[in-house]
């Protein structure tokens, strides 16, 4: 008889829970991480926690391969079939907001206090998206290499100057110990080029577009500073400091580890594998970007959550995002996929980014050197133009003609889109 009472009690509880679930309004989330089991499991846990923590909203997730994700969103937007919550790459967000795919995210200021600035996506004076992590690039080196070549070890406070950086490359080349002094990762294409290389241009004093109004690239991408950058960029390949655009992808992945390159310009996402693969992990150092005259700068802004224009319950989407921004989740993502947690508190909870951790320097680099890519809907076009221009210059194209042509192409696109709403 006692067993029957327990069974009936369980049935009553199950019915009550089912009733609560049916009362929750469903919010669909689209995510770019299909195929990444670790990432999917962490996100699934956050969603499960959120759904069980309140009675108003029920988030469900649909994941897409990253390669096809943006195209899927654009196609669905045109068809009027967007979900409520969208995953969006930081530099792409202004384009989606301008195109009407996103609406402002009604998130509280308290929820984003203390976050790395680049993890907060702003457009036209409003917040549209917030990320759980960021990414940073550093110059990989070995302390033993610096010592053998008689080089000063740069710091965040005192990065290498252009002269010191070129002196380091020349010393490495002259030593005869390396296939190339510098690995820039030219085997990678697409967003790597503006993310990794436009900070060099910005440190020279130029930019992809003029950020004062975002109405032209004239002067920013083809002015005196940009021309100096372009000549320097071309010299890296012409004078044999770095492999060109035909770099073997395998060398990009393992060249520094195997000692083929003295220095490698790479992101924090590759750092853990590098430390695990080299003979002496304690010898590896992650150095700040050189200062080419206008400050030491790296790229910033990674994937973020926003609310689509089709969402009828933006308050529910914001509630989920705020829930996902808890430090324990930021730390879990960092430990799981190796990226930089969005807050210092979360960093202290991680294995790699806590003070004294093997990758802690990357949090400091992101906090001190990060500059977001041009915050403009036109960035998605300008980025491709910039990539082609740098690839052509690396392959010997005339610097002035190439940058002037790039400016014309970017300006034509801005004019064709009536200034992109700036």
TrEMBL record:
InterPro entries: SBP. The keyword Transport applies. Pfam families: SBP_bac_8. Residues 1-23 form the signal peptide. This is Carbohydrate ABC transporter substrate-binding protein, CUT1 family. It comes from Marinovum algicola. Belongs to the bacterial solute-binding protein 1 family. GO terms for cellular component: ATP-binding cassette (ABC) transporter complex, substrate-binding subunit-containing. The keyword Cell division does not apply. One of its GO terms (biological process) is maltose transport. Keywords: Signal, Transport. GO terms for molecular function: maltose binding. Coiled coil: none annotated.
